[in-house]
Design goal:
Layout (H helix, E strand, L loop, with lengths): L1 H20 L14 H13 L2 H15 L2 H27 L7 H24 L4 H21 L10 H41 L5
Helix pairs in contact: 1-2, 1-4, 2-7, 3-4, 3-5, 3-6, 4-5, 5-6, 6-7
């Protein structure tokens, strides 16, 4: 649970900071405007401030915990902590009162409680063998691919280099993740098949 809180706080605060550093309209990002650092911050902002990325946080925390019940709790806690840290950092960076974000925080806390629990269980299920583990491992990369098709990270009318880089990273990571999940699934099935054949060849082996 403490690891979930720490991961959530770090992720939420970092996402808010990347948004600020990548914007020429925020005091924190003004000194970086037009530099390569602003471009790098924009890529990170596009990657981190997306639905699939937040979902990946809860899945990763659930995977780290292992047990499904604990994964559900850790996933929910991580998203709730991330939401709080995100808006607290936003308020500090932008100079707004935290009460300005109260309703948004409440809505996203409620969503984090429900979705974080489900995603935490998904993360814990990745460790399971068979089809369950495969489907759990495919959740984030497939979700990222679907979001890239339906809601690509394009906040501007024109496609910028940062957008191209961010989309390339997401697609590459999604393909590699799917490949890893399928390879692990097939390798496990081959191992089970080999073990069964070995036992059939030794009928007296316990």
């Amino acid at each position: 649970m403490l690891r979930g809180i720490a991961a959530g706080v770090g992720f939420g605060a970092a996402t808010s900071l990347m948004n600020a550093l990548s914007s020429p309209y925020v005091a924190l990002g003004v000194p970086l405007a037009g530099t390569v650092w602003a471009g790098a911050a924009k890529v990170l902002s596009l990657l981190m401030d997306s639905g699939w990325s937040w979902a990946a946080l809860a899945v990763a925390v659930g995977w780290r915990v292992g047990a499904r019940a604990q994964g559900a709790l850790a996933g929910a806690v991580s998203l709730i902590a991330a939401t709080g840290a995100y808006y607290v950092t936003d308020a500090f960076v932008l100079g707004d009162p935290l009460s300005f974000y109260a309703m948004d925080m409440i809505r996203w806390w409620a969503a984090g409680l429900v979705l974080g629990s489900v995603l935490g269980v998904v993360g814990a299920s990745i460790r399971r063998p068979g089809l369950v583990g495969l489907l759990a491992a495919l959740t984030v990369p497939v979700g990222a691919a679907v979001q890239m098709v339906l809601l690509p990270p394009r906040p501007h009318l024109t496609v910028t280099p940062a957008i191209v880089v961010a989309e390339a990273i997401v697609w590459t990571a999604a393909v590699l993740s799917v490949g890893w999940a399928v390879h692990r699934f097939r390798a496990a099935r081959r191992a089970v098949g080999a073990a069964q054949q070995h036992r059939r060849g030794h009928p007296y082996r316990s």
